[in-house]
Amino acid sequence: MLDIQYIRDNPDLVKEKSAQKGYDVDVTQLLGFDNERRILLNEVDNLRQKRNELSDTAKGQRPSEEQIEAGRLIKENIAKIEHQLASIELEYFELLKKVPNMPAEDVPVGKSENDNVVVKEWGNKPNFDFVPKNHWQIGEAKGWIDKERASKVAASRFAYLKGDLVLLEFALWQFALTQLTDENVIRDIVTKNNLGISSKPFIPVLPPAVAKKEVYEATGRLNKEEQTYKIEDEDLWLNASAEHTLAPMYLNEIINESDLPLRFVGYTTAFRREAGTYGKDMEGILRLHQFNKLEMESFNSPDESMQEHLFMVAVQEYLMQRLGLPYRVLNKCTADIGFPNARGMDIEVWLPGQDKYRETHTADYITDFQAQGMKTRVRKPDGSLVLAHTNDATAFSERPLIGIIENFQTIDGNVKVPEVLQPYLAGRKEI
Predict the structure, then answer these.
(1) Helix (H, G, I), strand (E, B) or coil at 230
(2) What is the pLDDT of residues 347-406, one digit of tens each?
(3) 298, β-bridge pairs
(4) Which pLDDT score, from 0 to 100, does residue 274 have?
(5) E-assigned strands of 279-404?
(6) Any residues with CB less than 8 A from the CB of 412 and at least 6 apart, and which?
(7) Alpha-carbon dihedral 254, 259, 261, 267, rounded to 10 degrees
(8) How far, in Å, CA of 418 to CA of 398, rounded?
(9) Which spans in 211-368 are helix H?
(10) What does each C-alpha distance from 5 to 14, 29, 87, 148 come to in angstroms?
(11) Cα(4)–Cα(2) distance, integer angstroms
(12) CB 324 within 8 Å of CB 418
């Protein structure tokens, strides 16, 4: 959640920046409930103080009838005000939860993903002496992708992945985990990008694939309409990416600053409703309801969190470069960065079979927005407490598989295996 004091101090700016992200926020109503809430909280505190004073006066002796009556009236008034307060707080928190994080200063103002700004391109697009196929043409011909049978068992936008494509996917996970848990690799990335932060490696995690509603709301990630599946008759929602259950690991906890950064790389099978996308990207495995993903998550001190965000983008670029896939980096605009984000970067791979770039990675700079709701704090050396900052970013999803299939296809319909993945496929150079 956004700090209420910031909203009090900057009501017009909050409304403006929220609108830039596509959210219509009633700041006036929120601040009205905030003011009523503070008045009632002050009244309750005053009554409790009077009750304590009355108790101290009667200590060690039998209370008089006047004192008993006064105590009874105070108790009734507290109960009455607390009832009012509960109603006010319900409205207050519902409105506060609708306020998105404020975009950073260098985030482009835009109305859709078409306004994202390309900041870098890397690699050479392949030149074929034949007409390149798209990944689903190759995958179906090789027997790697079977969506027809999956639709009989589940529904559309599900798939059976089979054979060498499964081996290639597991090679992708193994390669990424080997790199991200190697301190020498992390140190090289930090040094090469002139980042003044720790070279601590990532800790691998297999997190829960579900979270309670209040936990989802605390992270700002509950999106009922667009992506989140709910388990029927349970207060549990399926994750749409591993960071959804990695971010709340330190819910209601205090982390010593000396332990930061805390870096995790989590693997889950994720589930996403993809509401509003029917008729779009129905072919292949680009946009499925179920997919696998390896996600980075970190907890940072406020003064290092932006550097950590840039570090995660550097990690993503390193992984793509090691695969040899041509890509571009985008600075996402206000309308595309997401509800809890202050900043967002995307990496898109070139797909020759589709003659376009498509997203494979995203990196989210969250600041203390999630920590406000999660009450995740950092204890500094002097004993003071500050809110933690969080960052998350894709290590790999299944989408780089699409890039590998399309960029490394051969005229006879096979796929060359990137050199860094060959050790995980018993040395095979082509599948």
Answers:
(1) strand
(2) 999 999 999 999 999 999 999 999 999 999 999 999 999 999 999 999 999 999 999 999
(3) 263, 391
(4) 77
(5) 290-300, 327-331, 343-351, 356-367, 377-379, 385-387, 389-397
(6) none
(7) -80
(8) 15
(9) 213-219, 243-246, 305-323
(10) 11, 15, 21, 54
(11) 6
(12) yes
The string of DSSP codes covering 251-279 is: TT-EEEGGGPPEEEEEEEEEE---TT-TT
Closest Cα partner for 246 from 274, 213, 204? Answer: 204
Segments in 97-163 forming alpha helices (H): 135-141, 147-153
Q: In 154-234, which ranges are continuous DSSP H helix?
A: 164-180, 183-192, 213-219
Cα radius of gyration rounded to whole Å, the chain = 26
According to DSSP, the β-strands at 160-161 and 145-146 are antiparallel
* Residue 156 · residue 375 · CB < 8 Å: no
- Residue 370's CB: how many other CB atoms inside 10 A? 27
Q: At residue 182, what is the residue type?
A: D
Q: Which amino acid is at 38?
A: R
Instruction: Tell me the pTM.
Output: 0.92
**What is the bridge-based pairing of β-strands 389-397 and 290-300?**
antiparallel
Model confidence at 276, in pLDDT bands (50, 70, 90)?
low
Domains belonging to the chain, first-starting first, are 4-96 (1.10.287.40), 113-425 (3.30.930.10)
Give 303-347 pLDDT, tens digit per residue: 999 999 999 999 999 999 999 999 999 999 999 999 999 999 999
Neighbours of 2 (CB within 10 A): 24
